[in-house]
Amino acid sequence: MRRYAGVMLNTVVTGPRTDRPPLLIAHGLFGSARNWGVIAKRLSDTRTVLTVDMRNHGNSPWVDAHGYGDLAADLAQVIDAHGGVADVVGHSMGGKAAMALALSHPGLVNRLIVADIAPVAYDHSQSHLIHAMRAVDLSVVEKRSAADAQLAQTVPEAGVRAFLLQSLDVKEKRWRLNFDVLEAEMGRITGWQHIAADFTQPALFLAGADSDYVRPDIRPYIKQHFPAARFAKIPGVGHWLHAEKPREFEAAMRIFLDS
Question: Which residues are catalytic?
């Protein structure tokens, strides 16, 4: 096994070994492997599915650097430990990590699915959500509902709160997120460092129809680096397309991966 210059991620393995490459799923910012548990279980009917906690998330190591070169090296280690090649799915931050992996280590990726993100820098920041989570007084929290009530004071969207609270360990009274590093590295997370390479294997850029993360004017740039890219949208959903319409998301993935 070759060791890449990353950290070994906490990896959940679901499903049987088959002659198909495993499917590796990389979550987005503030997420974890558990966010993808239902989809992973359903997709494991025909292959092994690997869901990971990205660095500084969940039960994976906390480290000081959080650039996409670092995240790609982490994913490369996981793939190398599970056969040396995989189909890769990434959402948002995980999608950028997956693209960086495909461009820097193309031999490890068979097919690529990028969910609602593009290889460009965005001008938004998610630091306000870090501030909101930090503000929760965990000393008085005995149930997740109590944390939700506090979080509602600054995060009005129930769906966003439910997502964030999946990273709260109520029993240990701590967040499974490295707030210090994620906030310090936010510019790198929302940004993108150009990689002078192409990924010529099949790639699907799957977006939410109500999201503006993958605008039509970005598609030519994507095609420059992912010449075999296909584009599709799921109607009636925004950036969290896999959570809002999981069955439709799963169906789109299966069509692409089985084609």
Answer: 92, 180, 239
